Amino acid sequence: MSGNPSVTTPGIYDQHLDKNPANYVPLSPTSYVERTAEVFGDLPAVIHGQRRYTWAQTRERSARLAAALKALGVGRGTTVSVMLPNTPEMVEAHYGVPATGAVLNTLNTRLDAPLLAWQMNHCETQVLITDTEFGPLMYEALRRLREDHGRNPIVIDVADSEYTGRAERVGTHEYEALLAAHAPVDRLDGPADEWDAIAVSYTSGTTGDPKGVVTHHRGAYLNAVCNAATWTMPHFPVYLWTLPMFHCNGWCFPWTIAMLAGTHVCLRKVDAKSILEAMREHKADHYCAAPIVHNLLISADPSLRDGITQRVRGMVAGAAPPAAMIEGMAKMGFDITHVYGLTEVYGPAAVAAKRTSWASESLSEQTRLNGRQGVRHTMEEGMTVMDPETMTEVPADGATMGEIMFRGNVAMKGYLKNPSATDKAFAGGWFHTGDLAVLEPDRYVKIKDRSKDIIISGGENISSIEVEDALYRHPAVAAAAVVAKPDPKWGETPVAFVELALGAQVTAEELIAHCKSLLAGYKVPREIRFEPIPKTSTGKIQKFMLREKAKSTAAFD
After folding, report:
1. Cα(430)–Cα(257) distance, rounded to whole angstroms?
2. What InterPro entries does the record tag this protein with (predicted)?
């Protein structure tokens, strides 16, 4: 036996026990599609308006897409960008593109032409699949891509049967014709190496150029399982696509639903009426959304919920949910699970895991418990709150602030073409989120703020989230965002941007008085501004724009 425990000496279990095709297959979520088509091929896979596809049909369409892409020269390491809403073609892209070895790049449908061109150039897009709704926008983005960057990708147009607006083709291929022209590949195979990239997704780029987050087949496979375990999802769920699939690959739910032989109910556009009608008509029982979408449901006409008799389970993430939102959904009878994560960890990576004892608590205490970011997912190897300078865990006292960090298999490969940012993100062997939080005595994590969103007033730290929670507790408030405003005496003071609920009225003085009843004096906003709050397509409030409006010093960090 070696005297050095770090040196591994071959033993009896290392002899004649090698990996082989019978006992080792690289992990890839494409295998979920193959298995479900084989076992449950007759069951419904996709519902979209008048269109219906079984799992056998969805598998075949995805396999035809893979064959068509291969014929166009797509292979390992090729980037296929897609500009698609939540349609069957977007589902098929998540199954067909990875089966070619290519990397899927889902474009945010709300970006402008210059940023779309920048992203497609950065990830070296070779094929673009785009919905004809976005024809004019993509025409301009492609023009810029050619003229500014010298790239001219192959373009495939999707003419969705459910789109009735102005349609404009910009490509040389049409999606359905392309599928019809190619026999399906024999199998939707994964890669030879599960570490191969499966997708590149871009961060919002609020401070400089966006970063391309590269994820791998292994992580996508594992996080698809995490989704089901976290939510205790049964087989055959009916999943409603309120979350854009372009956002972190739909938090890996395209692959989770394949694994569970569920049904994708697609929505091109998201509003309260469409969501509740789909829940009623198709018996949808699971959905994911940012807090703003849940608030839409809370404020919708209660009669729209008539006929929804099934148990509906919602997952909320994308921003820290206000306590009033969690409480409002509970009063509606919807079962809400709060998760937390980032693009760099494939979407959700932590959950406010519910304990049975919580059910006996008051509604307000349940709201507090469920409002925390919680504990790591089953397949995350580590999540804690650390001092980023010393890389030591903060005390579990609910007061000492540090930075949330993750480690494990469900973490990105790194940032595309950005080694310095990758090294910084992984410093000390952990992924640094940039979110400031405390570790509570039960080891559940509670976010206090993004590091750049903390307001320092007279030397005291103010959590913008805490102030926003107070504002949301006023029935007239539909949306709220709090940022720092420079102050000659205090350095910074909180300023609140507020959107009112439909038909509601309230004065700034009344809101300030409301906040005073819930917060310490120094935390109360000194100013209330009633105006539209800028948001991303996934419902995240764009605070960097508000900081600029407030002329916050943080806007110039």
Report:
1. 30
2. AMP-bd_C (IPR025110), AMP-bd_C_sf (IPR045851), AMP-binding_CS (IPR020845), AMP-dep_synth/lig_dom (IPR000873), ANL_N_sf (IPR042099)
CB 350 within 8 A of CB 375: yes
Question: What is the average pLDDT across 405-425?
Answer: 96
Q: Which helix (H) or strand (E) holds 545?
A: helix 543-549
Domain segments of the chain as ranges = 49-217, 270-450, 455-556
E-strand spans in 245-380?
263-265, 286-289, 313-316, 335-342, 347-351, 375-376
pTM summary value: 0.83
Q: Whole-angstrom Cα distance, residue 131 to residue 175?
A: 10
Per-residue pLDDT tens over the stretch 60-87: 999 999 999 999 999 999 999 999 999 9
- What DSSP letter does each residue of 75-134 carry, written as one string? -TT-EEEEE--SSHHHHHHHHHTGGGT-EEEEPPTT--HHHHHHHHHHTTEEEEEEEGGG
Terminal Cα-to-Cα distance of the chain (whole angstroms): 56
Query: Under CATH, to which class is 455-556 assigned?
Result: alpha beta
CB contact set of 485 (below 8 Å; sequence gap of 6+): 492, 493, 494, 495, 526, 527, 550, 551, 552
Give the dihedral sign, CA 218/213/76/18. negative
Which tokens sit at 90? Answer: 């977007």
In angstroms, the CA 157 to CA 229 distance is 37
The 8-class DSSP code of residue 226 comes to H
Annotate 79-101 with b (16+ C-beta within 10 A) or e (fewer).
bbbbbbbbbbbbbbbbbbbbbbb
How far apart, in whole angstroms, are the C-alpha atoms of residue 240 and residue 530? 33
Cα–Cα dist 444/160, whole Å: 44
Give residues with Cβ within 8 angstroms of 315, minimum separation 6.
231, 286, 287, 288, 289, 336, 337, 338, 339, 348
Report, as an integer, the average pLDDT of 524-547. Answer: 83
- Determine phi and psi for 383, rounding to 5 degrees: -155, 125
Residue 549: burial class (beta carbons within 10 Å; 0-12, 13-18, 19+): middle
**Token pair belonging to 71:** 């014929």
Phi/psi-derived region of residue 250, left when phi > 0, alpha when psi is between -120 and 50, beta in every other case:
left
What is the pLDDT confidence band of residue 206, given thresholds at 50, 70 and 90? very low
Quick one: fold of 49-217? Answer: Rossmann fold (3.40.50)
Same fold, 49-217 and 270-450: yes
Q: Are 200 and 123 in contact (CB under 8 A)?
A: yes
CATH class of 270-450: alpha beta
Distance from C-alpha of 103 to C-alpha of 37, rounded to nearest angstrom: 23
